[in-house]
Amino acid sequence: QRQTTILGIESSCDESAAAIYTGDRGLVAHALHSQVALHADYGGVVPELASRDHIRKLTPLIERVLDDAGRPELSGIAYTRGPGLVGALLVGASIAAGLGMSRNLPVLGVHHMEGHLLSPLLEPDGPQFPFVALLVSGGHTLLVQVDGVGRYRVLGQSLDDAVGEAFDKSAKMLGLGYPGGPALAALAQQGRADAHAFPRPMLKRPGLDFSFSGLKTAVMLAIKAAPATAAARADIAASFEQAVVDTLVAKCRRALKQTGVSRLVVAGGVGANRSLRRALDDSATADGFSLHFPRAEFCTDNAAMIALVGYLRRDDMRAGIASADATPRWSL
Ligand code: KG4
Ligand code: ZN
Q1: ipTM
Q2: How confident is the model at residue 214 (pLDDT cuts 50, 70, 90)?
Q3: What number does CATH give the domain 5-118+299-316?
Q4: Fold: same for 5-118+299-316 and 129-293
Q5: Can you spell out the DSSP letters for 46-86?
C-alpha cells in the first residue's frame, strides 16, 4: 500500500517554505527562502513586498522538495491558513488550492501555531503527550498544555508585546539592526546581566500570563540615562535578556507544577536564545522535568512543521477545495 505523503507549504510572514512528510520515513525534504535581506532596510516586514516574494519563491521551492523526495505521489497538501499577514497567507493558500484542484488532491489549512507546538515531534526522540509548550516568537508568547493532536489548552499568553517583539524593539532602541533578537543576544554576551535591575513582569502575581511592555519602557529609560558607550549598551542588553529569561523560566516552572506535566517543549524563534536554553536546562535538572527543543532550523518558521501537522491531521483533509482560504487572525 502506498504511504501517506504530504506536501507542506508555509507563507505566513517572511519565510517561503515547502516540505514533504511521509508516513513511513517522516520528513524527507524541506526547503526555505528567508526574506530577511529584503526587509532589512525597512527595519521590519513590509507586507506587500512579502506577498510578492512568496509569489516568486514558493513554486520553485515546491518543485525542489518534490525533486529531492524523488517525485513521490502525493496524498494531500497542508498549507498555513493563519495567523499571519493576509496577503502572504493568500499566496500559499492559492497555490495549495490550485495544486489540489489540478492534481485532484485533498487540502488542509493548518494553524501556524499548531505547527510550532508540534514541531519537536519532527525529531526521532520527540516528546510523548502530554507536554507543556512554551511558544515564543516575534508574534506570540504562549504557554499551552498539549494533551494530543488537536487537544490544546492555552494556560497563559502575553497581554501586550510578544517576547520576540520585546527583543526586536529593545534591539532597535540599542541601535542594532533587524531582526534584533539575535543581535541583542550577541551583544548581551559582552555585558553584565546584573548591571540593571529591570522588572520581571508579572512574577509576583499568580497566573501564567505575560507582559513585556513595561520591561521595554525600563530599557528605554536605561538607554537615556546611560553613557553612550559600547560597554553600557552591552550591560543593558545583558540585563534585559536576563529579565526575560528569568520571567520565562519562572512561568514554565509554574505551568509544569500547576498541570502536573513533566515534559516541557520550547518552540518559536526566541527558543533559539542560548541563555534561555541554558537556564531551562538548569531548571530541568533541578526540578526533574524533560526538556525538548525542535532542532534550531525548525525553531523559526518552516514548512516541515506544517507538513507534519498535515500528516497528523490527514483525516481532516478535504477534497475539492477550490478557493484560497486564509484566516489572518485565528486563535489556537
Ligand atoms: O518564530 P519566528 O521565526 O517568527 C515568528 O515570529 O513567527 O520568531 C522570530 C523572533 C524574532 O522576534 C527574533 O528577533 C527572535 O525570534 N529571535 C531571537 C533569537 N533568535 C530569533 N530572540 C532572542 N534571541 C535569539 N537568539
Ligand atoms: Zn512562527
Answers
A1: 0.98
A2: very high
A3: 3.30.420.40
A4: yes
A5: -HHHHHHHHHHHHHHHHHHHHHHTTSPPP-EEEEEEESS-H
